[in-house]
């Protein structure tokens, strides 16, 4: 930019033949009045005087300079007050935003719909979901355990995961819609005939029961479970899940690598009950549900939330990681 008769002059690039120098070449930063440098670089631009155009002051700016402060303020108030003369109400001054009309293509007769909104059942098709079962015991000793695990699994593993609060009876035919059932209690129990028959059908058709001993072997729930499974499938035993087991060794490194089973309370390894050479029941002997449970929800400063039952954050973190390994293994094996 150049100074010319008191005005700032803007230079425009001009065309020229290759190799011929321009009459007004500028290199570096062009100078502005009062010794201030312009921020725009002019390196290598060939500038011609015939394209100069003066940047004259705006007439509105000139008018404001001639007016006094009081006159300018009065003009501003007048400009704000003028629209109120034609407004019938306050809402006319600030009309609500117009809703955009969504134009839907008309569906022709016999034509199938290409895209449709997913229903609640369709959203669960590819989502990991565990349904809590209700039976004749203290079937819900840790109410926040399953919601907390579902939240952490979805957040950490980045997988679709759904929590359904309503518990199911074992005799309910609804259990056949869900591939995983969650069982968690302290006290001894007995299944009814209808519950036992329905659970046998569920397990033989490919369902998986995840059973967690809330007392870690210190109450009557575990002996009752073994007795009921023996009635349903007589003559079959349980397999212990250890890291040196040829079949289950991948469970200990499928996502987080651990050299042994997480055993915070008991000294027992987890166990599985196999049907047709696949896992039908996964037994957790170390009360993972109590380690999942929270007394306050997770925050950015405390991602796991405040735990309960005296477990520290490191113990709970390891329990969650190993639990993720278990769920991923059940989903893929």
What would you report as the Rg, rounded to the nearest angstrom?
37 Å
What is the strand content?
A: 15-25%
Oligomeric state of the chains present here: single chain
Tell me the total number of β-strands: 17
* Residues in helices, as a percent range: 25-40%
CATH homologous superfamily grouping of the largest domain: Domain of unknown function DUF4159
State the secondary-structure class: alpha/beta
Strand/helix succession: EEEEEEEHHHHEHEEEHEHEEEHEEH
Largest sheet: 8 strands, mixed
Question: How far apart lie the N and C ends?
Answer: 73 Å
CATH fold topology of the largest domain: Rossmann fold
Tell me, rounded to a whole number, the average pLDDT. 77
Total domains, how many?
A: 2
CATH class of the largest domain: Alpha Beta
Unreliable stretches, pLDDT < 50, 5 or more residues?
1-14, 22-52
Q: Please, how many helices?
A: 9
Overall spatial form: elongated
Descriptive overview:
The protein folds into two domains: 2-55, no CATH class; 122-332, Domain of unknown function DUF4159 (Rossmann fold, 3-Layer(aba) Sandwich), CATH 3.40.50. Helix content is 27%, strand content 20%. The chain is built from nine helices and 17 strands. Strands 8, 9, 10, 11, 12, 13, 14 and 15 form an eight-stranded mixed beta sheet that branches. It has a three-stranded antiparallel beta sheet with strand order 1-2-7, with no helix packed on it. The longest helix is centred in the C-terminal third of the chain and has 20 residues, at 313-332. The radius of gyration is 37 Å and the shape is elongated.
